[in-house]
Write a structure and sequence with these properties.
Elements lengths: L17 E3 L6 E2 L13 E3 L4 E2 L15 E3 L6 E2 L13 E3 L4 E6 L1 H4 L7 E3 L4 E6 L13 E4 L4 E2 L13 E5 L6 E2 L13 E3 L4 E4 L13 E3 L4 E5 L13 E3 L3 E5 L12 E3 L4 E5 L12 E3 L4 E5 H5 L20 E2 L4 E5 L13 E3 L4 E4 L13 E3 L4 E4 L13 E3 L4 E5 L4 H5 L10 E3 L21 H29 L1 H12 L5 E4 L7 H7 L8 E5 L2 E8 L3 E11 L6 H15 L9 E7 L2 E7 L6 H5 L2 H5 L3 H20 L5 E2 L8 E3 L5 E3 L6 E2 L21 H4 L4 H17 L4 H8 L14 H4 L9 H17 L10 H9 L16 H5 L5
Parallel strand pairs: 1-3, 2-4, 3-5, 5-7, 6-8, 7-9, 8-10, 9-11, 10-12, 11-13, 13-15, 14-16, 15-17, 16-18, 17-19, 18-20, 19-21, 20-22, 21-23, 22-24, 23-25, 24-26, 25-27, 26-28, 27-29, 28-30, 29-31, 30-32, 32-33
Antiparallel strand pairs: 34-38, 35-36, 36-37, 37-39, 38-39, 40-43, 41-42
Helix pairs in contact: 10-12, 10-16, 12-15
Length: 819
C-alpha cells in the first residue's frame, strides 16, 4: 500500500502519458509539478485523501482527455486555468468540497466533453447557459450536477444534448419548468431532477423518451395531470418517482410492458381506480400509492399478482420490497393473493382505506414481513392464529376495525401495546389493556350451605365497600389540584387549540389527567424553552409533553401564527427511524404544549457523561450513534419538503432508546426553509454548538446544522466538549509546532476506552477527520448532510492506516480544514 503524498518529483517524468493512482490512500496536496507533464492525457487520482485545492498549474496539461479527482477532500473554487483543457472529454470532480460557480468562462472551451460529474460538492449560483452547447455530438453523454446548491432554471442548452444517457440534477435548488424540448433527448436512460424547486406540468413530449428507464421528479412543486399515455409510451420504464401535487388518473396501462420495478406515486392527489395493468406486472418490487384519493377494489389491481423474484436490478441489495396503499379510498376485501406478492418484504401497509371482509390467512406466507398495518378499515372476523408463525414481524397495527376473538400468540402480537388493537370491541388476549371474558360454569352441587355463604360474603362485601370509600377520600384529597385544573379547562370559555398528526389519538384533557395538572412530580427535564413532563395516556402509551415558556398570545405575533402552525403540521409528517415521533401541538389559556414520543434512556449527554458511558459506549456503539444522527439530519435537509433546519443539534437534543439507537428530537426551535430562501435570520441554538458565523450574520442555514453535528461527533469521540480543540484549530496556533510536541489523536480521544484497533481504528480516524471538516470556519466549505451520511456509513470500510494508530497526530487530520 502506498504511504504518503504524491511526490513532487513525478513532474520530472516528461514523457508520462497515463497516471493512475486511485484508491491508494494518498494524502496531502496535489503537487503543482504535475503541470510539467505536457504529454499527460489521463490522470486518475480518485478515492484518496488528497486535500487543499486544485493547483492552477494543472491547466498546463493541455493534452488531458480524462481527469478524475473524485472522492477526496479537495476544496475551494475551480481554478480558471482549467479552461485550457480543450481536449477534456471526461471530468470527474464528485464527492469533494468544491464551491463557487461553473461559469461560462470556465467551461466554454470544453467542446470535447461527453461526461461531467461534479455531484456531492457545494457549487452554488448560476450554471453557464453554454453548458452542453459545444459538447461533442457523438458518444454517450453523462451530466451529473446533483447534490449541490445550483439555484437557476435548467439551462436550455441542456435539451440539445441529444445523445445524453444520464441526467442527474437532483438535490439542488433548480427552478422553472421542464421544457417541451426534452423530446430532443433521443436516448436518455436516467432523468432525475428530484428535490428541487421545479414547478408546472410535465410536458406531453416526455412520451417521446422511448429509452427512458428511470424517471424521478419527486419533491418538487409539479401540478396537473401526468401525460395520459405515460408509461405505455415509455416501454423501457423500470423506476418511476412522482411524489408532488399531481392530480387526475393514472393510466390503466402504466405497466403494460411488464418492466416496472418501482412505482412511487405517493403524496399526490391522484384519483380514480388503481391501474389495471398492475394486476399482471410481475416485475413490480416496490409500490407506494399512499396519500392519494384512489378508489376501487384492491383485488381488481392485485388479485392475481404472481410471486416475484429478486430482480437483478437490485444487485446485492438485501432490503426487500414494500407495498404501501395507505390513505386512499380503496374498498373491497384484501385479496388472498397478496400472500404471494413477494417472496419476502419489509412492509405491507393497507391502513386508512375502506377495506372490508376478513383478513386472509394466506398473508402468513409473508415470512420475512416486518411491518403489517391494516388499521382504520372495516375489516371483520378474527386475526388468523397462523400469524403466530410470522417470526420476523416487528410492528403490527389492527386498530379501528371490527375484529373480534383472541389475538395471535406470536411474539409481535404479545409484545404490542393495546394501541395496536384499540377500536375493536371484540378483541381480547394476553396484552395489557385487553381481557377475554371469563366463562363461569354453573355449580351443580346441591350440598352448599347458603347461610354459610351469606355469612361470609356479606362481611367481605362490607369491608370491600369500606375500603373503596377510604380510597376515594384519599384519592380526592391527593388529586384535588388536578381536578380543579380539569374543571377550569372544561369550564373555560377560551377554546383549546389542537393540531395532531396521524398518531395523535388523545386529547388535551388526557395530558392534564396523566400529569396531575402538570405537577412537578411528573417533570423529567427543564430547559431554556420550557419544561418536559412524562405522561402515560391510552392505557400504557407514554409520551413526553413540553410545556413552552412562551405564550401563544403574547410571544407569537399574529402575523407569525399561521407560519408556526404550518411548521407544526410539517413536523407531524416527519417520519424517520432516527427522529423522535412528534404527535402534535395544543394550546390552552395562553400556554403552549408540544407532544412527543417518549424515549426511555434519556439524552445522549446523560448517557455519555454518566456511568453508562463507561460500561456501554464502545467505539462500535459510538460509530453507530454518529451514523444514526447523520441520517436523521440528512433526512431533515434533503427528504422533507420544504427542508427543515434543526438549529439546535446538541447532546441534549439526541436521545437514546433501549438499544442505544440515537433519536433526534426536532423541537419548536426547528425552522423550515422556504422555497425562495435558504436562510433565516432568527438565531437559535446552544452555546458551544452554534456555528461562528451566527454571531455576525445571524443567518441560519443548513450548514449551521453541519457545524453543530461536527461538534457533537467530536464530543462523542473525545468524551468531552471539544471547545479547546476547536479554538486551537480556528486560531493561528499550530497543533504541531516545533516548540511543543505534536498532539496525538490517541491522547485526544475518550480516555475511558481502550484505543481502537483494526477496522475500528480506521473508522475512528476517518470519523474524527470528517468531523473536523464539518467544523470548518467557512460555511460554504462545509459539506451537505446527504454526502456526510453516505460517507459515515462507509466508515468501517476505509483503507488500512498508513501509520500506527498511536503515532497519528491531530495536525495531520486537520490539514487544509481550518484556514
Amino acid at each position: 500500500m502506498f504511504n504518503g503524498s504524491v511526490p513532487t518529483e513525478i513532474g520530472l517524468i516528461s514523457g508520462l502519458q497515463i497516471l493512475e493512482w486511485n484508491n491508494i490512500a494518498a494524502n496531502g496536496k496535489i503537487p503543482s509539478s504535475l503541470g510539467q507533464l505536457k504529454e499527460l492525457w489521463s490522470l486518475d487520482l480518485r478515492s484518496n485523501f488528497l486535500n487543499s485545492t486544485i493547483p492552477s498549474e494543472l491547466g498546463s496539461c493541455t493534452n488531458l482527455s480524462f481527469l478524475s479527482l473524485a472522492g477526496n477532500n479537495l476544496s475551494g473554487p475551480l481554478p480558471m486555468s482549467l479552461t485550457n483543457l480543450a481536449k477534456i472529454s471526461e471530468l470527474g470532480l464528485s464527492d469533494n468540497f468544491f464551491f463557487g460557480q461553473l461559469s461560462a468562462s470556465l467551461i466554454s472551451n470544453w467542446s470535447q466533453l461527453i461526461s461531467l460529474q461534479v455531484q456531492n460538492n457545494t457549487f452554488t449560483g448560476n450554471i453557464s447557459p453554454q453548458i452542453g452547447l459545444d459538447w461533442k455530438p457523438d458518444g454517450n453523454q453523462e451530466l451529473d450536477l446533483s447534490q449541490n446548491r445550483f439555484s437557476v432554471p435548467i439551462p436550455p442548452t441542456l435539451w440539445n444534448l441529444t445523445n445524453i444517457q444520464v441526467t442527474n440534477l437532483f438535490f439542488n435548488e433548480f427552478s422553472g419548468t421542464i421544457s417541451t424540448d426534452i423530446e430532443n433527448l433521443t436516448s436518455p436512460e436516467i432523468f432525475d431532477v428530484n428535490t428541487n424547486n421545479l414547478y408546472g406540468e410535465l410536458p406531453e413530449t416526455i412520451l417521446q423518451l422511448n429509452a427512458l428507464r428511470n424517471f424521478s421528479v419527486f419533491t418538487n412543486n409539479f401540478t396537473g395531470s401526468i401525460p395520459r399515455e405515460f408509461g405505455k409510451s415509455n416501454p423501457s420504464l423500470t423506476h418511476v418517482y412522482l411524489s408532488n401535487s399531481f392530480s387526475g388518473e393514472l393510466h390503466p396501462d402504466l405497466c403494460s410492458d411488464g418492466k416496472l420495478v418501482i412505482l412511487a406515486v405517493n403524496n399526490n392527489s391522484f384519483s380514480g381506480p388503481l391501474p389495471k395493468s398492475l394486476r399482471n406486472c410481475s416485475s413490480l418490487f416496490r409500490v407506494w400509492l399512499d396519500d392519494n384519493q384512489l378508489t376501487g377494489n384492491i383485488a381488481d389491481a392485485f388479485g392475481v399478482l404472481p410471486a416475484a423474484e429478486i430482480s437483478w436490478l437490485l444487485g446485492d441489495c438485501n432490503r426487500l420490497p414494500s407495498l404501501n396503499l395507505s390513505h386512499n379510498n380503496l374498498s373491497g376485501e384484501i385479496p388472498f393473493e397478496l400472500g404471494n406478492l413477494f417472496s419476502a418484504q419489509i412492509m405491507l401497509d393497507l391502513s386508512s382505506n375502506s377495506l372490508s371482509g376478513a383478513i386472509p390467512q394466506n398473508l402468513e406466507k409473508l415470512a420475512s414481513l416486518e411491518i403489517l398495518n391494516v388499521s382504520h378499515n372495516h375489516l371483520s372476523g378474527t386475526i388468523p392464529q397462523s400469524f403466530s408463525s410470522m417470526l420476523s414481524l416487528q410492528s403490527i397495527d389492527f386498530s379501528y376495525n371490527n375484529l373480534s376473538g383472541s389475538i395471535s400468540t406470536g411474539r409481535a402480537f404479545l409484545t404490542a401495546t393495546a394501541e395496536a388493537y384499540v377500536g375493536n370491541s371484540g378483541l381480547c388476549g394476553e396484552v395489557k389493556g385487553l381481557t377475554c371474558p371469563k366463562v363461569f360454569l354453573p355449580d351443580k352441587s346441591r350440598g352448599v350451605n347458603k347461610k354459610v355463604l351469606l355469612g361470609v360474603i356479606i362481611p367481605v362485601c362490607g369491608l370491600f365497600i369500606g375500603m373503596i370509600c377510604v380510597g376515594i377520600l384519599l384519592s380526592w384529597r391527593h388529586s384535588k389540584k388536578s381536578l380543579d385544573e380539569e374543571s377550569r379547562i372544561e369550564k373555560s370559555n377560551e377554546s383549546i387549540s389542537m393540531l395532531w398528526g396521524r398518531d395523535g389519538k388523545f386529547t388535551f384533557s388526557d395530558l392534564v389527567k396523566a400529569t396531575n395538572g402538570f405537577n412537578d412530580m411528573y417533570c423529567i427535564g427543564k430547559g431554556a424553552f420550557g419544561s418536559v413532563y412524562r405522561a402515560q395516556v391510552l392505557t400504557d402509551q407514554v409520551v413526553a409533553v413540553k410545556r413552552l415558556n412562551i405564550s401563544d398570545s403574547d410571544d407569537i405575533p399574529a402575523v407569525n401564527r399561521q407560519s408556526f402552525q404550518n411548521e407544526i403540521e410539517s413536523l407531524t409528517e416527519v417520519r424517520h427511524h432516527n427522529i423522535i415521533k412528534f404527535y402534535g401541538f395544543c394550546s390552552c389559556r395562553g400556554q403552549m404544549f408540544l407532544v412527543y414520543e417518549h424515549v426511555h434512556r434519556g439524552s445522549l449527554g446523560k448517557v455519555l457523561y454518566g456511568e453508562e458511558g463507561k460500561s456501554e459506549l464502545s467505539w462500535a456503539t459510538m460509530l453507530k450513534i454518529v451514523q444514526g444522527i447523520a441520517h436523521a439530519i440528512s433526512y431533515l435537509h434533503s427528504d422533507c419538503s420544504p427542508p427543515i433546519v434543526h438549529r439546535d443539534v446538541t447532546l441534549n437534543s439526541i436521545l437514546l432508546d433501549s438499544d442505544l439507537e440515537p433519536r433526534l428530537a426536532v423541537s419548536s426551535t426547528a425552522k423550515l426553509l422556504s422555497s425562495n430562501t435558504s436562510t433565516w435570520t432568527s438565531v437559535a441554538g446552544s452555546y458551544g454548538y452554534m456555528t461562528p458565523e451566527l454571531a455576525q450574520t445571524k443567518r441560519v442555514t443548513d450548514k449551521c446544522d453541519v457545524y453543530s453535528f461536527g461538534v457533537v461527533v467530536l464530543e462523542i469521540m473525545m468524551g468531552k466538549h471539544p471547545g479547546e480543540l476547536l479554538f486551537t484549530m480556528s486560531s493561528n496556533k499550530s497543533l504541531s509546532s516545533t516548540e511543543e510536541p505534536p498532539v496525538l489523536l490517541k491522547d485526544v480521544l475518550d480516555q475511558r476506552l481502550r484505543p481502537p484497533t483494526g477496522n475500528l481504528a480506521e473508522a475512528v480516524v476517518f470519523t474524527v477527520t470528517m468531523a473536523m471538516a464539518y467544523t470548518r470556519a467557512a460555511p460554504e466549505s462545509r459539506p451537505m448532510m446527504r454526502p456526510v451520511a453516505q460517507q459515515l456509513a462507509l466508515a468501517t470500510k476505509q483503507p488500512c492506516l498508513t501509520e500506527p494508530f498511536g503515532m497519528i497526530t491531530v495536525s495531520k487530520l486537520t490539514a487544509g480544514f481550518h484556514k
